[in-house]
Design brief:
Layout: H1 6-11, E1 21-26, H2 27-39, E2 45-46, E3 48-49, H3 51-55, H4 59-69, E4 73-76, H5 79-88, E5 93-96, H6 105-110, E6 114-117, H7 120-133, E7 138-142, H8 154-158, E8 170-175, H9 187-201, E9 208-209, E10 226-227, E11 250-262, E12 267-268, E13 274-275, E14 280-285, E15 301-302, E16 311-314, E17 317-320, E18 330-333, E19 347-351, H10 357-363, H11 368-373, E20 380-384
Amino acid sequence: MTKLTSQTSAACSIPENAAGGVLHIDLGALASNWRTLRDNAGGAETAAVVKANAYGIGIEKAVPALGKAGCRTFFVAHQSEAIRVRAVAPDATIYVLNGLFAGTCPTYVGFDLRPVLGSFEEIEEWAGFCRAQGQRWKAAIHVDTGMNRLGLTVPQGLTLKDSGALKDFETALLMSHFVSAEESENPLNREQIEAFQAVRATLPGIPASLANSSGIFLKEKPHFDLARPGYALYGGNPTPDRDNPMKPVVGLQARIVQLRWVEADHSVGYNGRWLALEKRRIATLSVGYADGYPRAASARGKSGDELLAGMALVAGTPCPFAGNISMDLITIDVTDVPENQVQRGDTVTLIGGDLSLDEVGRRAGTIGYEILTNLGSRYARTYRGEQG
């Protein structure tokens, strides 16, 4: 028998028949979504946001698939993510959104990465490093037009033209970020576009970027020179008031480890928060909140009251969660499924079909972004469409 060391076992992928859940990832759909977004971006270059491990599906898989589809520019949140992207995309342009951490300029230059500078302090540090090295390396500048998280204020942005520091490096991109682009009629969208245009007008010749996934579809068409979609790439709906133009990328199935009948007036799960009003058949799934499925999707109350709780699809039948989600297990009510159609070892759908990312998020009182980025490490993962 082969002896496994901690190093070799950590490198092993999880076989499907040994996993509590299986995550199915369609890289062909990912590439198709990028093309759809590109075709709606009005001729602007279309980048891809691959932060948070490509929204949970894996940087090392997503980036090559997007590259084969034609994507040449990637955005991440952290420098460590950018280094992973560089390993699989040696010729790509890579921006790091979360700003320039003090003392990290040499790493940016060593891996040919571009920081997104969001304060005069960051601009001065990058300019000083470039000046000391005698080379004008590239960076982006972030102007805040309403989010109030990162970036120069609009008044600060309007003074950038007078900053002597800009002569020491190449400003490759001027960018801002929408607050509510998914709300197509929100007046803040127009206000942000106008504020961004005002700053842009003072810095002619610098490529500009404002549109995220939902921003691409706004009637104002704020595409500028570069769009940078994220969530929509992975199947999330960038137009919540309309049908989803994106293809699903992620599917999640969980394995049934046990079935049992629960008598009337008996509870299920921790703290007895769910009560069977009549005899119900319960299936226990080998997935829980340790796998990234939100505990907030738990069903509390009485059988039949689970309208806002989590749901699974079992042999095509919607089955509500029953009781609290625990660390490693979810219990669901499968009484409405014919007994011969649900057995120990079967898999049920937690994401897929009518249970879109957005629907799963809604039932958990959160958003599909959180569902994606919390996808756990204990799933077996299958990939298809790797040709991009």
